[in-house]
Amino acid sequence: MALKYNPQEIEKKWQERWAAEHIYEVTEDSSGTKFYALTMFPYTSGDLHIGHWYAMAPSDVYARFKRMQGYNVLHPMGFDAFGLPAENAAINRGVHPYDWTMKNVEHMRHQLKSIGAIYDWNREVVSCLLEYYKWTQWFFLRFYHAGLAYRAKAPVNWCPRCQTVLANEQVVGEGFCERCGSQVTKRDLEQWFFRITKYAEELLDFSHIDWPERIKVMQRNWIGKSEGAEISFGLEHEGVEQKEIRVFTTRPDTIFGVTFFLLAPEHPLVPQLTAPERRDEVEEYVAWCRRQAEYERTAMGREKTGVFLGSYVINRLNGEKVPVWITDYALLTYGTGAVMGVPAHDERDLEFARKFNLPVRTVIAPPGWSGEEPTGAYADSGTMVNSGEFSGLSSEQGYDAICNLLERRGWGKRTVTYRLRDWLISRQRYWGAPIPMVYCNKCGIVPVPEEDLPVLLPPDAEFKPTGESPLKYCQTFVNTICPKCSGPARREVDTMDTFMCSNWYFLRYTSPKTDDAPFEAEKLRYWLPVDLYTGGAEHAVMHLLYARFFIKAIRDIGLVDFDEPFRRLFNQGTISYRGDKMSKSKGNVIAPDEYVAELGADAVRGYLMFIGPWELGGEWSDSGIVGVSRWLNRVWSLVETGYTSQAAELKAEKELLHVTHKTIKRVTEDLEKFRFNTMLAGLMEFTNYLSRMQELGSISASLWQEAITCLLLLLAPTAPHLAEELWARTGHSYSIHNQSWPKWDEELIKEEEITLVIQINGKLRDRLLVPVSITETEAKELVLERERVKAYTHDKKIDKIIYVPGRVVNVVVK
Ligand SMILES: [Zn+2]
Ligand SMILES: [Zn+2]
Fold it and tell me: Residue 31: which residues within 8 A CB-CB, separation 6 or more?
């Protein structure tokens, strides 16, 4: 009597045995080729929801598959434990962020174990622990010594709710906080920055990595390279020392169309260039602008505003005096904070000119232009007109000719600008790695010596956010001794952006216990770069950009010898429920634990594979998971029921081999391409086929055993517990997960072939060898592609095509 499938019992049993026997521990000295399969480590938010499972289960299936293929697979797990989400949650509950975080880590680790993944828990990394953040600080110091970290005063994004500054990358949509959704405002603060802009050009090079196109596009747009020219406008203003203002333009060929000059309201020259009689109006306007969010100021279609300063700059190319205005759509944070106004060829400039009755002068003629007033701004290329000696040139020729002139006369030069700004890493919050710097009245900014690390995050500090760094009020932390002169000094009280912690966790997995370096160089050289990185696309211009920068920076510091952290990137889709993306606020979150308890982890894993293409995700349905669970039960019965051979038939045996090998091929190829849903459909079809064979009994018992063995091996990555159990119950020795992935035999997959006779209007014209399984549509398509058939049909109309299955295709033409 066959036993019933009991996932609760077998899953617990095998998880314990795998752990006890350290089956998934990996070392560097294996003979197989290394494969580093990395999944983004989760925030310690408290509970693993189905979205985590959707990130982790399919990546585990893939890692298991590579392992069975003979690769030496590193597939580690850890926790992104510092940062706002954990701190905010702790504050809401009135507990210390450390206690809250570590409690979550424990709970999540327990949940993660229930997935049945091949994580080597000896390699776990928790970014808020001393032994980890000591090295986060160490990297900061290395950046500082290499000139890649600097302190500067700048207008920064401020989230009034989170009470901290945000990096530009953390301001999303139309100026909202990425964490809490509040409207972000501006503040002037002294902050620490990383010089990511130094790598702008190299970050645009994706030629050595296999990443999704949309992530590359997002990074490219974020970096925002534009080529153009820097042009100097003359300044002859009494009492102003500066004799020029430079602007950047992508269209130097439009220089003769400049009819006004714009400065950002915050531009330092504004007070000096303001005529006395215009001062009140200008000051009022500047104050008004500072209250506006950046996205509002630059929004398309917004009504243009501005004030004339009462002063002029000189357009050196034609000697004209150009009036200087300030406007909110000129930003100090972009380019030079100055813009040349060319209303005929720029939509926003045209709106501005119309609003304030400024002249509009066409200097680039559209094709067929005969001197009429333009209705809109013409921003394309054309022929230069009203441009002195340059008139008659094409835009492209003019671009070069004007750049050459500028460079010859010293009035400017060809240049490239980027939208990317340096990465602001200071945070006015408690729950992060303290920035290891000291301020001394005598010596200025002094880095903490490496041997004095870590700078301990004081556990007893008051951590509630006040708008200032909480550490500022912790006297035992702030007051220190200057490492240089031993005089009294103060510590930096800001902590680091947690994206600094996630910049290097995948390096730490290679040697997590090392305590005299962030990683062991030899081990790192063996495992890195990461071969496959999987996770959410929401990190496109944050973590995924920062980590690329980080690796390039530490390469230049001499710590690693590769250029890119992640060779291949794959972004999984999302699981929705009741038509909506799952979220706690909508109350439609699926808790995987209940399903694991009821149907088993293998059913949850299997269902997540089946729900849709991994990159798209799908809609969770209870009947869907029940269907997958039923299939696993069928696999169980199929194997447990046993097999009795009635009378072996050669034809049936040949067919079984054919189907088995076709299934191996399909499952292997689907897994390689992350097509988990069709992979599973293939396994289900194979199960159904074997059930029919079981009833017929028309194959030998040994061949049946071979087919079952193959089914279990193919099932092992998806349903590791069930496959292990049935492996043992069919008399194999432990463990299925140490077996080799089955290989298919092309000979056995070959379809039997037949000859189709091709007729045109009933006359034999050609013959064609095709697989026996060919469909009518396929046969007709193949026939029409034949050159000999085309010779008869190309000048005629095909009336109909008659298909006699397996024998004749008759094309009737008129
Ligand atoms: Zn916020
Ligand atoms: Zn000092």
Answer: 72
